Amino acid sequence: MSQTVVTRFAPSPTGFLHIGGARTALFNWLYARGRGGRFLLRIEDTDRARSTPEATQAILDGMAWLGLAHDGEVISQNARAERHRAVALELLDKGEAYKCFASQDEIEAFREAARAEGRSTLFQSPWRDADPASHPDAPHVIRIKAPRDGATVIRDEVQGDVTIRNDQLDDMVLLRSDGSPVYMLAVAVDDHDMGVTHVIRGDDHLNNAARQMLIYRAMGWPLPVYAHIPLIHGPDGKKLSKRHGALGVDEYHKMGYPAAGMRNYLARLGWSHGDDEFFSDEQALEWFDIKGIGKSPARFDVKKLENLCGQHIASTPDAALLHELHGFLAVTGQPPLSPAKSALMEQAMHCLKERAKTFPELLEKAEFVLADRPISPDQKAAAQLDDVSRRILKELTPHLQNASWTRDELEAEAMQFAESKDMKFGKLAGPLRAALAGRSVTPSVFDMMIVLGRDETIARLNDAACESA
């Protein structure tokens, strides 16, 4: 019987959920969900000074927006400190760890002497093989007994076999002198206890794997599969940072990118499936595999993100898009749409979502729906409504009023009217846009008429025609 895949995302709640963290969460989610496995969430809140409830909430909100639902309860690493301590004491009982009474001054003196002699500065404790009977009644740490000879090989699904000489591994502290467990111990114990089968994380944790493997082996636990993914770089090839505009996931939500587009783009950052750029969640779940992750850092490209988001907005069903739009308005503190405006927005969605890359762009195109009479044209649109244009609108309105209210009929009436005036339709379109939306860039005037309906359209045209120049 094959083993159930279990992955985890384990962020530290010391700040927002950044793009790199979101991609790590996505890769873990895709790998587990695509194989009928479990995706777990652990908050690594052992750094009590820097961990905040607000940061934890930001992580949860970011994952909720991205649609990365986890299985089971959120696990707090800090709440499991007693279990971590128990493992350290078990290793001590098994002879795989030891009490070290060396003071900070003694450790520093050892390192200074090593530097002066050109030796490794990794601390070698004189207490490693000391007889417990000789132990003083004094503060101490508990250290693991790392192998002194040979090498540790990390079999990594992305990086390949990574060999670290054991003389480069120190006897890592497991419990500090105050009895608190260190991060490395906590991670290894939690991953084992949670049944994690695949550890997929950033390659900045690669060296940590060798140290965490010491604990697994000393406890006789089976190792997880490791996959250390390259970090994300900015367009200049340097590690992504705030100077590249690297923001928290919540900021991308507030900028109006659709979650599906964000998932698609993040999946393509460092992973590929042939030449496929645009794909659905279902395809990502079917295709995603660790073998498709490259060894080189991916480069964050806002233009590619926008392009994919535009494709996702265009392909999302209207009702689902409206639902996400409501969420965008809420997260940005904008007033909600009334039921009447919501209904109109859904009717208009077919002509709003083409070529809109973000929700603000979609809302800009939806001004004709959102605005109420009397329409106040902006500067560019107002320039289209001179005396001549108003007179033309006044003449055109009765023709439209008597037309059967279909797109084809309205278009035919308008074209015929323009021809009768010996003008191109483009000359008519500008004033119509200004009258119906108060904007110069809008969906097709005929799409707007159909969405607004006969009465509202005629009323807006009459308003514009009757206003003095």
UniProtKB/TrEMBL annotation:
'HIGH' region, short sequence motif: residues: 11-21
Domain Aminoacyl-tRNA synthetase class I anticodon-binding as annotated: residue spans: 338-464
Sequence motif 'KMSKS' region, residues: 239-243
Main location (coarse class): cytoplasm
Protein localization: Cytoplasm
Gene3D superfamilies documented for this protein: 1.10.10.350, HUPs
Cited InterPro entries: aa-tRNA-synth_I_cd-bd (IPR045462), aa-tRNA-synth_I_codon-bd_sub2 (IPR020751), aa-tRNA-synth_I_CS (IPR001412), aa_tRNA-synth_I_cd-bd_sf (IPR008925), Glu-tRNA-ligase_bac/mito (IPR004527), Glu/Gln-tRNA-synth (IPR000924), Glu/Gln-tRNA-synth_Ib_cat-dom (IPR020058), GluQ/Sye (IPR049940)
Domain Glutamyl/glutaminyl-tRNA synthetase class Ib catalytic: 5-306
GO molecular function annotations of the record: ATP binding; glutamate-tRNA ligase activity; tRNA binding; zinc ion binding
UniProt KW keywords: Aminoacyl-tRNA synthetase, ATP-binding, Cytoplasm, Ligase, Nucleotide-binding, Protein biosynthesis
Binding site for ATP: 242
Entries under PROSITE patterns matching the protein: AA_TRNA_LIGASE_I
Keyword NAD tagged: no
Entry EC number(s): 6.1.1.17
Source species, domain of life: Bacteria
GO BP: glutamyl-tRNA aminoacylation
Entry's Gene Ontology cellular component terms: cytosol
Catalytic activity from the UniProt record: tRNA(Glu) + L-glutamate + ATP = L-glutamyl-tRNA(Glu) + AMP + diphosphate
Family: Belongs to the class-I aminoacyl-tRNA synthetase family. Glutamate--tRNA ligase type 1 subfamily.
NCBIfam families assigned to the protein according to its UniProt record, in alphabetical order: gltX_bact
Its job: Catalyzes the attachment of glutamate to tRNA(Glu) in a two-step reaction: glutamate is first activated by ATP to form Glu-AMP and then transferred to the acceptor end of tRNA(Glu).
Assembly mode: Monomer.
Official protein name in the record: Glutamate--tRNA ligase
